[in-house]
Specification:
There is one protein chain. It is built from four helices and seven strands, in the order ααββββαββαβ. By secondary structure, it is of the alpha/beta class. The two termini are 28 Å apart.
């Protein structure tokens, strides 16, 4: 009876999220005819299903984080840059009583036509490996070197 939009009641440790989704998502195909945003929504539905959310998750609201009940932001990485949207872990902002933009967890799917790998970490860890780039639209983006993908191809990487 819990929705992905609900405030968190019991947040799973990132290791449990990894156990529930990683093997099931690696190799899954995303519809390449869709925009990056739509592929992100497709991935969000897949993650919600693997985490055990029942019922239709058709009414994705695009809130932050995507799966609020688990304080999990889901991103598709199909280019060297990830659009983080309105919030960036570079700047700490309070999201609710227990989470900030630095403690929100990120799940980033490295994709071509299929999901080649996953990165899972709290927001505070994103800036340790990559550089933030401010855009004129006031969104922050993450630049990821292309050799990063080769190093982790076919693997699940997470940082609890």
């Amino acid at each position: 009876d819990v929705s992905i939009k609900d405030e968190p009641n019991k947040v799973l440790p990132i290791e449990i999220i990894d156990e529930r989704i990683s093997d099931k998502l690696i190799g899954e195909k995303l519809d390449i005819s869709l925009s990056t945003k739509q592929r992100g929504q497709q991935l969000e539905r897949m993650v919600a299903y693997q985490l055990g959310y029942s019922g239709k998750q058709d009414s994705l609201e695009g809130g932050y984080p995507d799966i609020r009940n688990q304080m999990l932001e889901v991103k598709v990485q199909d280019s060297p840059t990830i659009d983080l949207g309105k919030y960036s872990p570079q700047f700490e902002e309070q999201i609710n009583d227990n989470f900030t933009t630095r403690t929100i967890r990120y799940l980033i799917a490295l994709t071509n036509a299929a999901i080649d790998g996953l990165i899972m970490c709290p927001g505070e860890e994103l800036g340790k490996s990559f550089t933030y780039v401010a855009e004129k639209s006031f969104k922050c983006q993450r630049s990821i070197p292309m050799n990063f993908f080769e190093e982790f191809k076919g693997q699940v990487v997470f940082n609890p």
